[in-house]
């Protein structure tokens, strides 16, 4: 398919639906995550209780959460400084630069990380270019920063082609997303 580079490995409703048990089962040692509308709503810098609980659980399980963002250092530091997570700013997604930086600095293998984000044109494409699995999540809130509007328009057109004018099927856990992907691959003869 022409747009395979934009097709996520998995569709999961929220980054918070990536449970520690499921991440461990798939040998995931780090969740690389976009910042705005993925980890935090762009207009809620403190985050939700759900975010803080998820970060606590991943930290206790020894799974690192690292933000890979196109935002400036100042913006990312201000947003995640109190959350106790690592970060890469100015990552230049869809270029894989930020993901490669994390892999090199932390010594992770490509199959030990997931790149999670709410945009196909930046997060998913960067994951594909870096050779890591991608998780597309629904954006936390419907509004976006103005810089994202063009991406959303292009992404909506790409989704129509990738999913053949059907709504994508979102899952409330990684286990369900993995199961569905394996079933689809069997159906497609891969």
UniProtKB/TrEMBL annotation:
Q: What is this protein called?
A: YqeG family HAD IIIA-type phosphatase
| Phylogenetic classification of the source organism | Bacteria, Bacillati, Bacillota, Bacilli, Lactobacillales
One Pfam family from the record: Hydrolase
Q: Which InterPro entries match?
A: HAD-like_sf, HAD-SF_hydro_IIIA, HAD_sf, PGPP1/Gep4
Q: Which domain of life is it from?
A: Bacteria
Which SUPFAM superfamilies does this entry report, sorted A to Z? HAD-like
Q: What organism does this protein naturally occur in? A: Fructobacillus broussonetiae
> Hey, what's the signal peptide range on this chain?
none
């Amino acid at each position: 398919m022409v747009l395979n580079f934009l097709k996520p490995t998995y569709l999961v409703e929220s980054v918070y639906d990536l449970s520690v048990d499921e991440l461990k089962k798939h040998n995931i040692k780090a969740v690389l995550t976009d910042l705005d509308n993925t980890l935090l709503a762009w207009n809620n810098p403190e985050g939700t209780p759900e975010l803080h609980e998820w970060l606590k659980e991943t930290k206790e399980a020894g799974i690192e959460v690292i933000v890979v963002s196109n935002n400036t250092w100042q913006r990312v530091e201000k947003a995640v400084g109190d959350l106790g997570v690592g970060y890469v700013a100015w990552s230049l997604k869809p270029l894989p630069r930020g993901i490669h930086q994390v892999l090199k600095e932390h010594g992770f293998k490509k199959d030990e990380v997931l790149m999670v984000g709410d945009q196909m044109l930046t997060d998913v494409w960067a994951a594909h270019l870096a050779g890591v699995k991608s998780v597309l999540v629904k954006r936390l809130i419907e509004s976006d920063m103005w810089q994202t509007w063009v991406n959303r328009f292009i992404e909506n057109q790409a989704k129509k082609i990738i999913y053949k004018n059907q709504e994508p099927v979102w899952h409330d856990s990684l286990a369900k997303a993995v199961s569905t992907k394996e079933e689809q691959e069997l159906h497609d003869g891969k």
